[in-house]
Write a structure and sequence with these properties.
Radius of gyration: 23 Å
Keywords: Carboxypeptidase, Hydrolase, Protease
Organism: Sphaerodactylus townsendi
CATH topology of the largest domain: Immunoglobulin-like
Shape: elongated
CATH class of the largest domain: Mainly Beta
Order of helices and strands: HHEEEEEEEEHH
Strand content: 25-35%
Helix content: 25-40%
Protein name: Carboxypeptidase X1
Number of domains: 3
Oligomer: single chain
CATH architecture of the largest domain: Sandwich
Distance between the termini: 50 Å
Largest sheet: 4 strands, mixed
């Protein structure tokens, strides 16, 4: 279950086994707790190490749900929650972190995780792609701004030129 949760959700589960005795006698439990309490509490504090933040739309400041958070050289992406927030456990060090979402340009930032027991805030503000902006304007029955129309025309021409070169 631990592996499934890690691979298919943002959940990180662990199992801690303290000895070979799977079912210690009830009378032994208080001593087991005393022997391991401090190390367990220190271990639990480690959940705050890493990065956390919010992925927002640059224009509206609204959180972007289901955005993908990728860390270079770590083959395990996570997704933002419905309001754009995310959290990612990481060991201390420098990381190139990328936030991407459908209809937005991706953004990459360098995030430094320290040895402190608090997360590094690593927020992202994503800009809509020209196509996404156009869809939203047309859906509201608005007129396409001249700068956006010119940018879309330029993109179409580049695409046509690259297709001709490929032929």
């Amino acid at each position: 279950m631990n592996d499934f949760s890690y691979l298919h959700t943002n959940c990180f589960e662990i199992t801690i086994e303290l000895s070979c005795d799977k079912f210690p006698h009830e009378s032994e439990l208080p001593q087991e707790w005393e022997n391991n309490k401090e190390s367990l509490l220190v271990f639990m504090e480690q959940v705050h190490r890493g990065i956390k933040g919010i992925v927002r739309d640059k224009d509206t400041e609204q959180g972007i749900a289901d955005a993908i958070i990728s860390v270079d050289h770590i083959n395990h992406d996570i997704r933002t929650a419905y309001d754009g927030d995310y959290w990612r456990l990481l060991n201390p060090g420098e990381y190139a972190v990328t936030a991407s979402a459908e209809g937005y340009h991706s953004v990459t930032r360098t995030c430094h995780v320290s040895y402190e027991d608090n997360p590094t805030i690593c927020d992202f503000r994503l800009t809509k792609t020209p196509k996404q902006r156009l869809r939203e304007i047309l859906a509201k029955g608005g007129k396409v701004p001249k700068d956006l129309a010119l940018r879309l025309r330029e993109l179409r021409l580049r695409k046509l030129r690259s297709q001709r070169r490929a032929q």
